[in-house]
Amino acid sequence: MKRTTVLTLLCACLTLAACGGVDPNSPLGKRQAIFKQMLHTSEDLGGMLRGRVEFNEQKFAENAVKLDQLSHEPWQHFPKVRDEGDSDARDDVWQRQERFQSLARELEAATGQLAAATAKRPLDPDAMAPLVQKAEDACEACHKEFRAY
């Protein structure tokens, strides 16, 4: 195949691949990015407690604070009416706002308790485990009601 043909096909493929993505500046793109950060941060915390990653007190505390900060962010990116795009959110998010917001506050409270507990050193992983579990449970409760799998 000629070099120009290969380059043309490559450019066409790259252009088509770029068309299918979510606009990172849209409400959907912003909340997806925050939820991904929350997931990675939560996985790091859980990994330290479950022995997949070595427990590092400083990193654990930093991640707990980061998770608490992130837990307050995605809700502002849920507009009053359902937005366009490939969202995993069920229509119930917009139809049952009071319940959705209630679960958001529960998550914020759980991550706040976890972050506050990391201020007292040394950290005891056994004491942190139920707090991480509470935050994970708060995420799961919202997913069960409002996320389409």
How is this structure best described in words?
Helix content is 68%, strand content 0%. Mean pLDDT is 88; it is low at 4-19. It has one domain (27-80, 92-146): Cytochrome c/b562 (Four Helix Bundle (Hemerythrin (Met), subunit A)), CATH 1.20.120. It has helices at 3-19, 27-49, 57-71, 92-95, 97-117, 125-146. The protein has six helices and no strands. With 149 residues, the protein is mainly α.
Averaged pLDDT: 88
Tell me which oligomeric state these chains represent: single chain
Q: Which CATH top level class fits? A: Mainly Alpha
The fraction of residues assigned to DSSP E strands is under 5%
CATH homologous superfamily assignment: Cytochrome c/b562
The total beta strand count reads 0
- Taking the alpha carbons of the first and last residues, their distance comes to 43 Å
How much helical structure, as a percent, in the residues?
55-70%
The backbone outline, from C-alpha atoms, is: elongated
Sequence stretches where pLDDT stays below 50 over 5 or more residues: 4-19
CATH topology: Four Helix Bundle (Hemerythrin (Met), subunit A)
Domains (count):
1
Largest sheet: none
Helix tally equals 6
- Please name the CATH architecture: Up-down Bundle
Q: How does the helix and strand content classify structurally?
A: mainly alpha
Task: Please trace the helix and strand order, writing H or E for each element.
Answer: HHHHHH
- Rg of Cα set: 20 Å
Binding site for heme c: 139, 142-143
Pfam families: Cytochrom_C_2
Keywords: Electron transport, Heme, Iron, Metal-binding, Signal, Transport
GO molecular function, one term: electron transfer activity
